[in-house]
Design brief:
The protein is an all-beta fold and 416 residues long. Helices cover 2% and strands 30% of the residues. The protein contains one helix and 17 strands. Strands 7, 8, 9, 10 and 11 form a five-stranded antiparallel beta sheet that branches. Strands 3, 5, 6 and 12 form a four-stranded antiparallel beta sheet that branches. Strands 1-2-4 form a three-stranded antiparallel beta sheet, with no helix packed on it. A hairpin with a 7-residue loop joins strand 13 and strand 14. The longest helix has 9 residues. The protein is globular. The termini are far apart.
């Protein structure tokens, strides 16, 4: 029997070496087993994994200190309430869920004694749940730090950015298979890129800013050598449904696409470049397929790349620098990888199973992150687009896919 598929998105942005921010430990909640190595310059340590919930705005999202956000297939708990953690619930208080998991991907060409090697590290690779990022120990400040601009909040801090800041640091340095198991398809052990990630996320409890959350990543190369053609991406697995009362198939009937532009709100007939990946339920989950009711999820959620240090904010009246090109891929995945499929430009990039779905192994993951494609919207998957240069579809699939949305051009990152 075919397993229900899921939707994923991946954002890739360009970056370079940035300074490390300070880390302040807070109350201990969960301690992991002993690791073989955590940082490139440290001996053994116990990663302290934790999560936190953005709960002050109309969009409520769970973030973690190991590179994922969402509810991790329902496994995460809200550390403040002890109840289930939201993936991405909107509007707040209505139990309308939109996200299963989002995960950071980093890919690079790494210098070795015999030349450049292609490596990709994932906080979750999608179908196989491979996590390759971990925080430091609790004693070394591995927990999530909360700050707020609200002077009445117990988390008030003069350096806070939003009504609810979450800050954490994690690494791709572990090699022990107690943490980072071998790739289940290539059977190769994990080869770390050796990077440090500073993750900041921001939420505002104000009417003009309560419907979005911003995630920010600062990435440091810990190697003594350079990283070349770096891609940093975000993979997401949406799941749009009402938590308790809907007749939803959850992620098995969701749709995705990319909105390149929208009419400017100022009028005059101009378009604004929005380049937003969207996902939604295919029909809003009518009750017993008859009519919508109060449990029908009719909302559409989006995610977009806002910019990188190469594309800073500009002064009023100045022309902004052009945004870098993006890549957006989606595919369906099943328990049998020979049934996977997703749109690809001819001649296609088949996996080791000869199919065109979930990328297998570091080399193919990197190729997907760098392929420069913008896949057509998923609701067009039943049309034959070979005349436009796409591989032919195998037929109408159970609809719930993997998406990647990434910057196509790489950037070299200098070693420390």
């Amino acid at each position: 029997m075919r397993r229900r598929s899921s939707l994923f998105l991946l954002f890739i942005l360009l970056t370079w070496v940035q300074p490390v921010f300070g880390r302040t430990p807070v109350e201990s909640r969960r301690e992991g087993p002993k690791a073989s190595m955590l940082k490139a310059d440290a001996a053994t340590a116990a990663p302290y994994t934790n999560d936190a919930v953005h709960d002050v705005a109309n969009l409520q999202v769970t973030v973690t200190n190991w590179g994922i956000f969402g509810n991790d297939n329902g496994r995460l708990r809200d550390p403040k309430t002890g109840g289930p953690a939201p993936g991405a619930q909107f509007p707040a208080g209505f139990n309308f869920e939109h996200l299963n998991i989002g995960a950071l991907w980093i890919g690079a060409l790494v210098e070795t004694a015999v030349g450049l090697d292609t490596l990709v590290s994932t906080a979750d690779d999608g179908f196989y749940t491979i996590n390759e990022f971990y925080p430091d120990s609790y004693a070394n400040g591995g927990d999530i730090v909360e700050r707020s601009t609200d002077i009445n909040s117990p988390y008030y801090h003069p350096d806070a950015v939003s009504g609810q800041d979450f800050q954490c640091v994690y690494y791709d340095t572990l090699t022990s298979q107690s943490y980072v198991r071998a790739d289940p398809t290539t059977l190769l052990p994990h080869r770390p890129i050796y990077v440090r990630v500073r993750q900041n996320s921001y939420a505002w409890p104000y009417g003009y800013a309560e419907d979005f959350i911003i995630l920010e990543y600062w990435i440091v190369n810990l190697r003594p050598t350079d990283l070349h053609e770096v891609r940093i991406g975000m993979m997401l697995r949406p799941a749009v449904y009402e938590l308790y009362n809907s007749r939803s198939l959850r992620s098995s009937d969701d749709l995705t696409g990319l909105l390149p532009a929208a009419k400017t709100i100022t009028g005059y007939g101009f378009d604004d470049s929005v380049r937003t990946v969207w996902f939604a339920d295919n029909d809003g989950d009518p009750y017993h397929n008859t009519a919508w009711n109060e449990f029908s999820v009719r909302s559409v959620i989006g995610i977009r790349f806002l910019g990188s240090p190469e594309n800073p904010c500009v002064q009023y009246g100045e022309d902004p620098p052009p945004l870098p090109p993006i890549t957006y891929n989606w595919w369906s995945a099943s328990i049998d990888p020979r049934q996977d499929w997703g749109p690809q430009k001819l001649p296609g990039d088949a996996s080791i199973y000869g199919t065109y779905g979930q990328p297998q192994g570091d080399a193919q993951k990197y190729r997907f992150m760098a392929n420069g494609e913008i896949d057509y919207d998923q609701y067009l998957a039943n049309e034959d687009s070979t005349a436009n240069g796409w591989i032919p579809p195998p037929g109408i699939k159970a609809l719930s896919e993997t998406c990647t949305h990434n910057v196509a051009d790489g950037h070299d990152v200098r070693g420390l």
